[in-house]
Design a protein that fits this description.
globular; 290 residues; mainly beta; 2 helices; 11% helix; Jelly Rolls
């Protein structure tokens, strides 16, 4: 087939238009070029854990040579057998059958302030074969059960499975909990384990995370009267149940818990449910000491 000069010109014009169209299809929204230098040194888009949902962080313990809750600058009312060691990021709290007790109502943990939450922490712990450990509790004075009890089932003798069994008191006065029935994180006296709880007050989804993975077996805890309620007044305890604090024992209640022997670092409470990617980012940032 012979091509006239006009045919060749038409073919060239059509080819040029096709090339231009392809280039536009590759960037249909005309996005600007990404500057790779802005991501240098970052992990999952963050320079450090302080950047993760910073506007929703309502309580924070760094344990960098202080037991104070840093958002409110609240010191504990009483402490027992507490010291500082090298942590995941800076220093960490070391407890030897010890605790931190805050005999105050934190504004961030009041009924209307805490409808949804994420609680992130790093823990060193072992099973002791006899007593459970209360990692932290939003305690209710003169009540055995707190509004939220972050229980570790350290009464096991297992060296390969750490039971994590948090529970909360509901709007209707009942109790809801979760448990990692099948999956366990790596743990031990010299191993830092990243533990996270999330709760969505609209859906009733209560999740247990460990080292960036959702390991809870019973996430759906219901709505209506089954939703979480942060009762008032409340107090806050790290590492113990009321029964482990002299003068605060609940008469006639079980002695299931022992004051904590282990370490805690970077305890953060948010008033929202963090996205999965942000929970994994906290884990990765912690591993990097950020």
């Amino acid at each position: 087939m012979k091509f006239t000069k006009l045919n060749k010109i038409i073919i060239l014009l059509v080819s040029s238009l096709m090339i231009v169209a392809c280039k536009k299809d590759g960037n249909p929204n005309n996005l600007s070029d990404v500057d790779a230098s802005s991501y240098a040194g970052k992990i999952d888009g963050y320079a450090n854990a302080d950047e993760v949902y910073s506007s929703n962080l309502v309580a924070y313990w760094s344990f960098d040579d202080t037991n104070n809750e840093l958002k409110s600058n609240s010191a504990p009312t009483n402490t027992a057998n507490a010291s500082f060691i090298t942590g995941v990021k800076g220093k960490a709290l070391k407890l030897t059958a010890g605790y931190l007790y805050y005999a105050k109502q934190f504004d961030a943990l009041k009924t209307d302030a805490l409808k949804n939450f994420t609680i992130s922490s790093w823990v060193q712990i072992t099973n002791n074969g006899s007593k459970k450990t209360m990692l932290m509790t939003i305690a209710r004075p003169n009540n055995f059960l707190g509004s939220l009890d972050y229980r570790l089932n350290t009464n096991s003798t297992s060296t390969t499975f750490l039971g994590i069994g948090p529970r909360f008191t509901t709007l209707g006065g009942g109790s809801q909990d979760n448990l990692n029935a099948n999956l366990s994180p790596a743990f031990g006296a010299n191993a830092w384990t990243h533990l996270v709880l999330t709760y969505n007050g609209t859906t009733g989804i209560f999740k247990v995370w460990a080292d960036g993975k959702d390991i809870g077996s019973y996430n759906s805890r219901g709505t209506g009267n089954n939703i979480f309620k942060a009762y008032e007044p409340s107090e806050f305890i790290i590492g113990a149940h009321y029964n482990n604090i002299p003068g605060k024992e609940i008469a006639g209640s079980a002695a299931d818990f022992a004051a904590m022997t282990g370490s805690v670092d970077e305890l953060r409470i948010y008033n929202t449910v963090l996205q999965d990617a942000s929970i994994k980012a906290l884990y990765n940032l912690g591993k990097a000491g950020k």
